[in-house]
Design a protein that fits this description.
alpha/beta; Arc Repressor Mutant, subunit A; D-Maltodextrin-Binding Protein, domain 2; 2 domains; two-stranded antiparallel sheet; elongated
Length: 313
């Protein structure tokens, strides 16, 4: 019964769950109704068009998944298969991270041919339990305290501009000067137009003027590279093939960094396929403190200071 309920909750559909489980829709409905009757609580809200999980259903689903994982692990252990990473692995990640993710996933699949991937790219926050996600790659500094997460890497933030932009506009000399410039900014919402700049012990906030807003990092990079506007970008979005035409703005000031994390729903009974994914990405990206995408042409000299080393900056 737990497996039936979990599949309905994950698929948000009785019909889809019945097809996955090779059961009749009537049987699936009967099993879910029996669980609700036994506990005297509604686990799913149903309409003619949709199925959604109630608050009680969320709590029950999380426990069901733990129990089912424990059962599957026990069955695999009896068959001598517990150590073999295999099966379908559902991976969620930000859309803007895809240019790096696809190469890494190709290497991962080559190393683990018994694992099949279901890759879901989205810049919205994913509910792992509701959506049946096994591992979730996140770029953030605000993880839920209950999250089971491993830090994989660091991505630095900085203001960047194309040299063609500075043929038409003066270079900023202080963070306050940035308020006079055009910017391509993320729209999450709200628009990320206020940033804190730090240098040694000094900090200053600046509200930037958006001339291009988008929820796609690639769009902001395109706007910046074309000379339309400046942009505040994480290092993983910097286009390596265009770096000769770009330069950091106010490189002696910093605007922070973000962590790259792999998140998974449960600490106990971690499936071999999930453990294999976590181990692979930790090996590929490092111990979490390193920024593998920061351009070699820009050095960091001491805390809060960056020096550009490419020619004619």
């Amino acid at each position: 019964m737990m497996r039936v309920f979990a599949r309905v909750a994950q698929r948000a559909s009785f019909a889809a769950a019945a097809e996955d489980l090779r059961m009749s829709r009537a049987s699936v409905t009967k099993y879910v109704a029996a669980i609700e009757d036994r506990h005297g609580v509604r686990l799913l809200d149903r309409t003619t068009r949709s199925v959604s999980v109630t608050e009680a259903g969320r709590a029950y689903l999380e426990r069901c998944l733990e129990c089912l994982q424990a059962y599957d692990d026990s069955e695999a252990a009896l068959g001598g298969l517990a150590a073999e990473p295999k099966g379908l692995l559902r991976v969620a990640a930000p859309f803007d991270f895809n240019r790096h993710l696809l190469d890494l996933l190709a290497q991962f699949v080559a190393a683990h041919p018994a694992i099949d991937l279901d890759l879901r790219l989205s810049n919205r926050t994913v509910d792992m339990v509701d959506e049946g996600v096994d591992v979730y790659l996140r770029v953030t500094n605000t993880l839920d305290p209950d999250s089971i997460a491993r830090r994989l890497a660091t991505t630095r933030l900085a203001v960047w501009g194309a040299r063609s932009y500075f043929r038409k506009h003066p270079r900023p000399r202080t963070p306050a000067d940035l308020a006079e410039h055009r910017f391509a900014l993320f729209n999450e919402p709200p628009v990320l137009d206020e940033w804190t700049f730090a240098r040694h012990q000094k900090r200053t906030k600046v509200r930037l003027r958006p001339s291009v807003v988008a929820n796609s990092g690639e769009m902001l990079v395109t706007a910046m590279c074309s000379g339309i506007a400046l942009a505040v970008l994480p290092s993983f979005l910097l286009p390596s093939e265009r770096m000769a035409h770009l330069e950091p703005v106010l490189p002696e000031w910093t605007v922070g960094e973000r962590g790259i994390y792999v998140v998974y729903p449960h600490r106990r009974f971690v499936a071999p396929k999930v453990r294999a994914f976590v181990d692979f990405f930790r090996t590929a990206l490092g111990d979490g403190s390193h920024d593998p995408w920061w351009p070699a042409t820009v050095e960091r000299r001491g805390p809060g200071r960056i020096r550009a080393t490419s020619a004619r900056m």
